[in-house]
Structures are given as structure tokens and as C-alpha cells.
């Protein structure tokens, strides 16, 4: 009777009719509580229906009756694995193996338990035992690869994965883990191919899509990475890490609105994820939505008050909003949580510069460079402070950090020839002097050319097309090269703005303070005819520089304000060729300003006009340098924080004898500058 009922229960169990099978198993146990086969199978059924604790209890009863049944110990181990009791599970598999030494599944599961326990040697030995018993066991090869991966034996792990995928080409997990090992070997393209194979086999394989996306990000293949994350989030819209990385990739692509949308989606899933708010703030900051960026940083700080990077970046946003005291407080908070944070010290220095606290700023830069001696931005900005204060010997040396600083407008050029900075004789050698940064910089530092020639060198001078014609008058130049053309042979090179370092220039030894450039006689005649007879004093105007200049928003002023405050009684001539879009309506409505536009072909034309002006009035742009280098009376309007070359708190310049400086006394206030400048124009005896 029991045998018949038992066979009936086993058949129902085999058919997946678990409820009916369970009823019969329990009925048998009421009659025969020590029926070992029934206890075992009811335990297996309990495990199959996720009742793992009951499974262990039932199998324990079976083992107590018949302890030498290897399958009972194996089944107990599987139930314990499901409960996460890895040590006990491994002990059960050991018992099964002791009873049945060639028990492949017990060896495999023992390896899995040891793998979870990070008992790498025991796990490896278990998988190798399986392979010894059954060489074509793909799972054992794949799991052996996992252990070898953890042991950082990458090449051996790869061999195991290749064996597993050779035995089972559709083994998606093995392809995934093969990709992970290839990634450790820095073979990223091969890793992606493995992830691709995994997703071909299993299009819904989330981990493979995620790792594929991460690897593509390492390759900076941002579009392809986004495509991976899009596939992943289509499978699982709540996968937080995918939205996070998608936001990073979108930001790298400059697709800021989509990056923002990714972080917003992420925050909707987890509103207290500080990193999501932080990266959202970074995106808003790049979009110049600064108030919103500050709000996001505030959310970060509420969630994680000691998030030093959020405090520091919040300070950057506040600085851009000109909330300088608040920015400084934010940097101080960052430093209080992370005193060894060089970026926060650097940012603090930048805020102090804006507050015109130069000595304190220097201390902050010193703290930054003490923490990171090769911190290019901090070293470069420190040089700017020193040069602004007139400490030229230290300043020029640190100014060489400019090439490595973020955002420096002139990339360092690799000529594969030695750089000359004054430390060796150049007598009899050919040296290339090359321009960098703006046209005004080229004009200012071209004064050094004849000093180089005086050292016995053959000088080749490279410059941009607009100024090359103007510079051809310089003495000591053997050959001129327009930037972009091929160079002749040269032995050494030096950027123009490194020449003060080469000559150890101090305030007292600045060469050629004025009059080292002049206009061409033919151009002067041509422009004299075009201007006609002079009925009143002529004032040359330059009110804005190139919009691409990183400080243009501070150094340029609106034409509408200029014409409103300049005094009548003068003939005003625009010395600018390019006009900002915002200034066109004002210029079109003015009859008092003569504008020649495209007729100014290059700086030889501008120089002729400067020569014909009684005064050149300019913001800090190339026209100011041109007028001053020609020795023309030049009034330069400077922002509250001036460029380093104009020094601090003086109305003259050691670089140019004919310059008078007009400085903002309040941040952004051009009205006071123009009022003083206009008063001085009216005082002149014409």
C-alpha cells in the first residue's frame, strides 16, 4: 500500500503537481514517520517551493535515520546554500563527497560554496576535481575562471572561460565573465566583443549591457555607451547605476539636457542619492543655470553634510554668481571636512582674487601646491598673483606652468627641438620665437626680439596673419613665418611670453617701454587721405575684445554706455574691425563714430589709424597694446581685477611710457571709469 502511494506521489512530483505530491508524502509520513525516501523527496519539494528551512528539517530527519545516503547530504547542502548558510552547505557537500568520492554535483556545489566564502584555494580544488571527473563540464570551467579572476590570474582565467564557451557556445554568463577578465587585462575592445556575445545569447542580460556600457565609457565611446544604457533601462527602468552612468556619458557628449533628464530620473528612483544630486548640479553649472546648480548642491549637503566636493563646487557656482563671500564660506566648509583637498584651496584662492585679497589668495595657492606640487592651475594662478604684485623673478618661473593648466588658450607645441629659457648660449644658432595667446600678447612681447638677436642668434619669428605685417619692421629678425606655414630649420625655440623668464626681467629691466613699433608711411598716407582734414581732436576707440577670450565679459563694455558718457567735441574713430552683435544697433545709430570695418585688413591699417589719433582709448585688448607700443597717448580702461601685466593700484605702466590706466573702483562699474577718463580728455590742451 505505501509503495503504491509513494510511486504515485513521485510521479505527481515529477509532473510538477507539487501540492498533490506533498499531500501524499505527508500522508505516508503519518503512517511511516521513518520512511527515508519520503522525507528526502518531501525535503526536495520544500526546497523547490522555496521553503528552504523546512527542507533542511525534513532532510535532517532522513539523515538521522540513514546517515550514509550521499544524496541526502547533497540536498541538504543545496537547501543551506539557498539560505545563504555557506559554511554549513560546504560541510554537507563534504559529507556527500565522503560517502561518494566521484559525486560531480557535490564537488561543483562545494566549489560554489567555497567561492562565496572567498576560500579561493578550496574552491579552485573543487572545480578542478569536477574537471578531472568530467572534463567537458562547462560550468566547472567557467567557475574555475571566476576563482582565477579573483586570484588576479587573468590569463589563466581567460583560458578557463575559453574552455567553457568552447564546450557551450551559448553560455552567456561565461561570456560575461570572460569580458570582465579581458577588461582587467585592459583589452577593452575584446571585452566588448564578449559582452556583445552575452547579449546576443540573452538580450535581457542586464549585467552584460551594464558592463558593456562601462567599458565603452572607458574608451570614451560615449554614444555607444548611451545605447547600452538605453537597452538596459528598457529592460529594467529602475536600474539606478544605468541612469547614473547614462548621465555621465550624456554630459561627456555635451548633451546636457539629456544628462539632466537622466539624473532627474535617477533622483525620482532614489531622492536621497547624494551623488545623483551632485552630478545634476555639475550639469546645471555647465549649462550656466547657476542658481539651480546651487540648489542641487544644497540638496547634496542636506543628505551628506560632509560632502567636501559639493561644498567646493557650490563655491565655484556662487563665485560665478558674484556671491564671493558665500563662495568663500563654501570653500572653507569643504576644507573643514577635507583639509587635504587641493582643489578647494585652489578655488578659495580664486575667490580671494575676486575680492582683491591677493596676499591671502597666495596663501591658499601655497596650501594647494603643498598638497600637490604638480598642481598646474594652482601654480599658474600663483604666478599671476606674483606678476600682478610685481614679483617678476618668482612670477616668470611659475608662469611656465601655464602649458599644463586647464583652459589655457594656447596648447603647448611639440617642436621636437630644445626649449630655450636663457640657460645656454645661442650664439651662432637659429632660434624660433613663436607667438601664443592673443594678438596683444604678441605685440607686447615682440620687444624682446632684438635682445635675442643681440645674443648672436639667427632669429625666426612666427606670428598670426593679422600682425605679421606690422612686426616685419622689428630689428634683429632674419626670417618671418606666418602661423600655419612651414618652418625653416631651427636649433631651439622659445615662446614669446617665456622671454621675460629667459632674460630674468624685473620691473626695472623691462625693455623698450615705448615706440618700438610704428606705422608704414604708405599706409599712413592712405588713411590720412581717407580721414580727411582734422576739424577736431581725434579719439580712437576700442571698447570690446574677442568674445572667445575667457575674461571678455569682464574686460569689455557695451558701446551704448561708452557713447553715453564720452564727451562731445571730438571725432571718434573705431579701431575695431569686429563688432559684437549687441553693439550693432548703437553703432548704426551713431554719426559721431567713424567705422571702417573690413577695410582694416590687418594691423598695419590699425597702426596707421592709431598714428593719426590724438589719443587711443581702449579696454584691455590688442588695440591698447598697439597704441602703447607705438608710443601714442593711450588710455586703457581696466576691470576691477585687471590682467597681471597692468600690476595693481597704479595709473601708469612700466611696460609702456605713454599709457594711462583707468581702473574700476567697484566690480563691474564702467561708469566711474568713463567719468574720470572723460574728465581727463576735456582737460587736454589740443
End-to-end Cα distance, whole Å, is 131 Å
Radius of gyration in whole Å, from Cα? 39 Å
Q: What level of helicity do the residues show? A: 55-70%
Low-confidence residue ranges: none
Structural class: alpha/beta
Count of DSSP strands: 10
Total number of helices = 35
CATH superfamily of the domain at 521-683, by name, is Glycogen Phosphorylase B
Major sheet strand order: 7-6-5-8-9-10
**What is the annotated CATH architecture of the domain at 521-683?**
3-Layer(aba) Sandwich
Remind me, CATH topology of the domain at 521-683? Rossmann fold
- Principal-axis shape equals elongated
Report the top-level CATH class of the domain at 521-683. Answer: Alpha Beta
What assembly state would you assign to the polypeptide chains in this entry? Answer: single chain
Share in β-strands = 5-15%
- Report the average pLDDT across residues: 94
User: Sheet bearing the most strands, described?
Assistant: 6 strands, parallel
Amino acid at each position: 500500500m505505501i509503495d503504491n502511494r509513494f510511486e504515485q506521489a513521485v510521479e505527481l512530483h515529477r509532473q510538477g503537481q507539487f501540492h498533490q505530491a506533498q499531500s501524499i508524502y505527508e500522508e505516508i509520513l503519518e503512517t511511516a514517520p521513518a520512511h527515508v525516501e519520503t522525507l528526502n523527496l518531501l525535503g526536495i519539494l520544500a526546497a523547490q517551493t522555496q521553503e528552504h528551512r523546512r527542507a533542511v528539517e525534513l532532510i535532517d530527519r532522513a539523515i538521522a535515520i540513514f546517515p550514509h545516503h550521499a544524496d541526502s547530504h547533497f540536498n541538504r547542502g543545496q537547501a543551506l546554500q539557498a539560505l545563504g548558510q555557506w559554511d554549513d552547505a560546504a560541510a554537507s557537500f563534504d559529507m556527500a563527497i565522503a560517502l561518494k568520492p566521484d559525486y560531480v554535483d557535490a564537488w561543483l556545489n562545494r566549489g560554489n560554496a567555497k567561492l562565496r566564502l572567498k576560500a579561493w584555494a578550496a574552491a579552485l580544488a573543487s572545480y578542478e576535481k569536477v574537471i578531472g571527473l568530467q572534463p567537458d563540464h562547462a560550468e566547472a570551467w567557467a567557475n574555475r575562471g571566476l576563482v582565477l579572476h579573483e586570484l588576479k590570474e587573468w590569463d589563466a582565467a581567460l583560458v578557463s572561460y575559453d574552455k567553457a564557451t568552447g564546450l557551450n557556445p551559448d553560455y552567456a554568463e561565461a561570456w560575461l565573465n570572460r569580458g570582465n577578465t579581458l577588461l582587467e587585462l585592459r583589452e577593452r575592445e575584446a571585452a566588448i566583443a564578449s559582452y556583445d556575445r552575452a547579449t546576443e545569447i540573452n538580450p535581457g542580460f542586464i549585467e552584460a549591457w551594464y558592463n558593456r556600457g562601462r567599458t565603452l565609457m572607458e574608451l570614451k565611446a560615449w554614444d555607444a555607451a548611451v545605447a547600452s544604457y538605453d537597452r538596459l533601462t528598457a529592460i529594467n527602468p529602475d536600474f539606478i547605476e544605468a541612469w547614473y552612468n547614462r548621465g555621465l556619458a550624456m554630459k561627456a557628449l555635451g548633451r546636457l539636457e539629456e544628462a539632466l533628464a537622466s539624473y532627474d530620473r535617477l533622483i525620482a528612483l532614489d531622492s536621497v542619492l547624494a551623488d545623483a544630486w551632485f552630478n545634476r548640479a555639475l550639469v546645471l553649472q555647465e549649462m550656466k543655470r547657476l542658481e539651480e546648480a546651487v540648489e542641487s548642491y544644497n540638496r547634496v549637503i542636506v543628505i551628506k553634510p560632509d560632502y567636501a566636493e559639493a561644498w567646493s563646487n557650490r563655491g565655484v557656482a556662487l563665485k560665478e554668481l558674484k556671491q564671493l563671500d558665500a563662495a568663500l564660506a563654501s570653500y572653507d566648509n569643504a576644507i573643514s571636512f577635507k583639509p587635504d583637498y587641493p582643489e578647494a584651496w585652489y578655488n578659495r584662492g580664486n575667490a580671494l582674487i575676486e575680492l582683491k585679497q591677493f596676499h591671502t589668495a597666495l596663501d591658499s595657492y601655497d596650501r594647494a601646491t603643498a598638497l600637490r606640487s604638480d598642481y598646474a592651475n594652482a601654480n599658474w594662478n600663483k604666478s599671476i598673483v606674483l606678476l600682478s604684485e610685481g614679483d617678476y623673478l618668482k612670477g616668470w618661473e611659475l608662469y611656465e606652468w601655464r602649458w599644463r593648466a586647464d583652459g589655457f588658450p594656447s596648447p603647448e607645441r611639440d617642436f621636437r627641438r630644445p626649449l630655450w629659457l636663457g640657460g645656454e648660449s645661442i650664439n651662432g644658432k637659429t632660434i624660433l620665437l613663436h607667438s601664443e595667446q592673443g594678438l596683444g600678447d604678441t605685440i607686447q612681447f615682440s620687444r624682446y626680439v632684438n635682445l635675442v638677436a643681440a645674443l648672436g642668434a639667427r632669429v625666426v619669428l612666427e606670428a598670426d596673419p593679422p600682425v605679421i605685417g606690422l612686426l616685419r619692421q622689428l630689428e634683429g629678425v632674419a626670417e618671418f613665418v606666418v602661423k600655419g606655414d612651414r618652418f625653416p630649420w631651427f636649433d631651439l625655440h622659445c615662446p614669446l611670453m617665456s622671454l621675460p623668464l629667459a632674460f630674468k626681467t624685473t620691473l626695472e629691466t623691462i625693455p623698450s617701454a615705448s615706440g618700438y613699433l610704428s606705422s608704414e608711411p604708405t599706409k599712413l598716407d592712405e588713411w590720412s587721405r581717407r580721414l580727411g582734414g582734422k576739424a577736431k581732436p581725434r579719439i580712437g576707440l576700442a571698447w570690446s575684445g574677442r568674445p572667445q577670450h575667457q575674461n571678455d565679459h569682464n574686460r569689455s563694455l557695451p558701446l551704448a554706455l561708452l557713447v553715453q558718457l564720452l564727451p562731445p567735441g571730438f571725432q571718434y574713430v573705431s579701431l575695431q574691425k569686429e563688432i559684437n552683435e549687441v553693439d550693432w544697433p548703437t553703432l548704426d545709430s551713431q554719426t559721431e563714430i567713424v567705422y571702417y570695418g573690413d577695410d582694416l585688413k590687418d594691423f598695419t591699417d590699425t597702426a596707421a589709424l592709431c598714428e593719426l589719433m590724438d589719443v587711443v582709448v581702449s579696454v584691455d585688448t590688442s588695440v591698447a597694446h598697439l597704441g602703447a607700443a607705438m608710443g601714442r597717448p593711450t588710455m586703457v580702461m581696466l576691470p576691477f581685477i585687471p590682467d597681471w601685466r597692468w600690476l595693481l593700484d597704479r595709473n601708469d605702466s612700466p611696460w609702456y611710457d605713454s599709457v594711462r590706466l583707468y581702473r574700476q573702483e567697484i566690480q563691474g562699474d564702467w561708469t566711474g571709469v568713463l567719468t574720470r577718463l572723460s574728465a581727463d580728455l576735456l582737460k587736454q590742451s589740443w
